[in-house]
Every structure is written in C-alpha cells, then in structure tokens.
Amino acid sequence: MGNRLRWVPLWALGLLGLALAADKASDKITDLPGLTFTPTFNQYSGYLDTSPGNHLHYWFVEAQQNPDKAPLLLWLNGGPGCSSMDGFLTEMGPFRPTKDNGSSLVENVYSWNKLANMLYLESPRDIGYSYRDKTAPKDDLYNDDKTAVDNVLALQAFFARFPEYKNRDFYVTGESYGGVYVPTLTNLLVKMIQNGTLPYVKLVGMAVGNGALNRMDLVNSGLDLVYYRGIIGKSEFDAMQECCQAPQELSAPLQMCNFSQYVNIDDFGNAVVVNYTDPVKLRCSQRTVKYGQDLVWSTLNNVYNTWARLLRSPRLDGYGRESQGTIPPQQTPLAASRSYARPLLRTYESTGREEALHIPDGLPAWQLCNDDINAIYYKQQHPDMMPVFQEMFDSGYPLRFLIYNGDADMACQFMGDQWFIERFIAKNW
Fold this sequence. Notes:
Shape: globular
Radius of gyration: 22 Å
Protein name: Carboxypeptidase
Number of helices: 14
Signal peptide: 1-21
GO molecular function, one term: serine-type carboxypeptidase activity
Number of strands: 16
C-alpha cells in the first residue's frame, strides 16, 4: 500500500504542469461585497487547471505581515468531499460571516494569514466551486491517489501564476480526512523534489489536525470514548471484556484492548461486521461496529464538537444526517459561524460575491460537502497512513511533522491519533 502513489509517472506530472497559466491580475479580488473592514493584504480567487478537464477553485490570501518573506501554507479540508472554504470561513481564514444570513464579513483576529500566505484549495474536483468540463469524458472515479496528483498539478499551476512564491518555505496542512490528503500529497511532493521535477518547491513540513490517520485506531479508541463520555453505560462497556485481545506489543500505553481483528474497513472508510461462524466472534464484531463507530455518529452530540450544546434540525443535507440531524446552536461562536458559512456562500450569486471571486456562470450551487462523492464515488485507499508516513521517513528528506488534536472531535479523535504516533515513534526511534 505504501507504494501506491508510484503508479503516476512523475515526468508526466511535469509535462501537465506546463499548461498555460492565467494572469494572476485577473484573479485579484478588488471588491468583496459585505466586508466590514478594509483588508491590508492582497487576495486572489480563481481556478487552477489540473488533469485534463478539471479545474480546482482556489482562494489565496497573502500574509498581513511581511508577505514577501512569510511562508506559504496550503490548507485542505477533509470529508472526503468537503470544501476548504469551511476552514477559510469558520476556522483560520481572515473573515467570519455574520449571523444575519452571512450578509457581512467581519475580521477574524486569529487568522493564520497574520503570519503566513494562505492558499485554500477546493479539492477534489466537483467540491465547492471546483468543476469538470461538461465536454470532458465522464469520470466518476475519485480516490486518494488521483486527489494527490490533481493537488500537485494545482500547485504547479499556482507556482506558475505566482512565481514569487517559488523557493519560499512551504507547508501542506489540513484536518479530518486531510489526515489522508496531506500526507499523500506531501509524500508525492517529496518524490518529485528528490527526482528534480519540482526544484522550486521548498517543502518544509506538513501539519494535520484531528486527522483520519488509521481507521482501526479510531474504532478502537471510539469504544473507550463513548464510555468515558457517557454514551454507553458500564454494562455495555463491561460486555466488551470477552472481546478484549491485548496487542502482543503494547507500544501505546492507553491501548488496553485491540478490537480491530473483529472488523473490516470498506472502501468508504467504514468499519463493517465480519460474518464469523463463531457466535462469540460474531457478537464481538457487531459490538465493535456498534460502539466503536455507529454510536459515535448516531449520538445526539455534535460528532465534531461533543462539548457544544445542540439544537435539533428537521432538515439537514445528507452529510449532516450521519449525525442524526443535530446542528450546533448559534450561542456558540464557532458553531454559529459554521452555520452561517453555508448561506453565505449560497447567496454569493445574489450579493455579487461569485462575480467578485471570478466564479463562472452555470456551475451547480455551492455545497459545503458533496454527499455523492463522499458516500458513492470516493474510494478510500489508505485506511492506515503508516506506510505513507514510513515512506516519507525513509526518504531521508528533512521534513517537519505536526500532528495536533483537540478533545471535542469524536470522529477523528485525539486518542486514535496518539496511538498512531506512538507506534510510528516506537518503530523508528
């Protein structure tokens, strides 16, 4: 699995990256309707051409301090199938939509572009404002390797359009399923830098927040967390004791039981029951899927923020229904800004924001997440990112890693990622 990215000839990527670059001046945002302050930085929005027929939307904001020397960061949200505009508008971008249906944009004083030049990319295609030409051959295949290739091509197009960022300190960052996007892209970049295809990319490091690094770890740790957070009771938790199989080598001190033998991971990243003939193993498999995965998503808690107070909503898109139709309340600032990100972007056409962002006419309405890509078309090739991490480590390339987690995310939570890193360290040091 660790060698899967090698199927793409690296010379071919170099040729594809020579496509004619658009003029960055035509991408410059000169007037963004609804802004309540005057930005002190330049910003650009447009399209980066990747594989034939594919066009990825980007929004680039230069650093507020010393942009000529500040590092360049790429940000990728996860899903798979969710827009990086989520991160831009509700997390570390320079703007926040207001609660009056997103009609105004206020300053985010904690924006990452205080110190870095930030590139937000809607990837893969058909996410957000990214699209495929209607005249291009039909292509419903989405997977991790194709996404990494298109992201490299997007970066080549970006550096062609913004050559002043060549040889600038560069970091690949992201969250959630970015735990797959970021390392697979970084690994491919390392190979292309080392073989001379991308001599102008000064890759320094990668960072992943609340990442989907290992699906089995997330299922195992999910069992502990649903008990510690009171989602299941002591009797249900104790019932798992008959299924407890301690790892032969306890490299992770918190990993008391290993339930991974009882489940399989399908192409969509879901833990599925193994049809054992042994009744005890079958029962263990069913319980592992129920407690380690299904209850994580079916709880009335917001799966991405278990500490938030909640409201019930009768209408959510398909992606949101995975969490039983719950939405964050608007009393919570972060939750509120997430709630308003959707109407903000969906009203771009009427407010003139789509025109300001140079979005072409005729595209489908912007969505936070593309449910069909997430649930039907996207094949997850890397349920365990360890082989990809090992390839990067074995390459000898001087790369910095940052893996960070909060304590509120149940979908891609801290305990599973901690176990992953502990195993990686135990193997290599």
